Amino acid sequence: MSKNDHWLPFDWQSKHVIVTGGAGFLGQHLVTGLKARGLSDQQITVPRSADYDLRRQEAVEQLFADVQRKIGPASSMHSVIVVHLAGNVGGIGYNREKPGELFYDNTIMGVQLIDTARRYGVGKFVIVGTICAYPKFTPIPFREEELWNGYPEETNAPYGLAKKMLLVQAQAYRQQYDFNAIYLLPVNLYGPGDNFDPASSHVIPALIKKCMDAQKEGHEITAWGDGSPTREFLYAPDAAEGILLATERYNGPEPVNLGSAHEISIKDLLQIIAQLTGFTGNIVWDRSKPNGQPRRKLNTERAEKLFGFSAQTDFKEGLRQTISWYREFTDQ
After folding, report:
1. 184: closest CA among 85, 273, 283, 116?
2. Chain mean position to CA 84
3. 233 phi, psi to nearest 5 deg
4. Catalytic (active-site) positions
5. pLDDT for 197-246, tens place per residue?
6. Which residue ranges in the chain fall short of pLDDT 50?
7. How far apart are CA 101 and CA 87, in angstroms?
8. Strands 263-265 and 230-235
9. Is 150:136 a contact under the CB 8 Å cutoff?
10. Which CATH number applies to 14-194+232-262+295-313?
């Protein structure tokens, strides 16, 4: 907690929380955090895609109608908080293969959810955006004021812009309807429960899987690009805590970065993962593949000032926990 601990108490017990994407990677950590704050299963709704295809307006309407019935006529929908984590997301290869799907799915889900929540009188809407929304060449560290000063990195621009439109909607709805929507920009996440599917995974789970597979099978590793890009990573349980602190303490229109303030090159990252997984073989860099955005590092002062968030997990320890989880997962 920040030394500027001046925030009012937050009554979670009077709330009902809808977590879109709550069964996913970050969502599972967020639901765990809600339960740690005393919420029961009955106070948390996690819409599953099999029941609610959030790309369809009628499914979104059904979700809010079902929640309204669930909380009962004595309760107001103003007690409902939506944390929107659901998305169609993946790594560089996935972004290059499916830019149209990524743009459509992420735009339509968010736009419909925000508008329907506003019409139902929901008390607060927490939008979790993406670091991919920043311009390709943003001064380091990325400050929220730079968000509109250029076009995103081309390989993930459709996804990044889709998510950025939700910031526009949130600010417009606050201005016209006094709708309390906040917008958070987490850096690349990692941790237990991550997506390790090579077709859609992000860099850390992809490299962990490559190293462990190569160690087991005795072959070399081929990594994309030249290893020079830098990235900042945030441990998913820390990200979940940041989102919950923002939910409790922040009610403003400006976007807020969530990060760890620790920057590392992909080359150094792979060396650390190789060491932690025990991989000692050869590493080949395929320079015909794209590097992605050259550097990513966030300025995280706004989050600490506005709602007292700073990352707590040491990067190597977070990697150890992630590798340990994956070992257990693959042994099942």
Report:
1. 85
2. 10
3. -125, 145
4. 159
5. 887 788 899 999 999 999 988 889 999 899 999 999 999 999 999 999 99
6. 1-4
7. 11
8. antiparallel
9. yes
10. 3.40.50.720
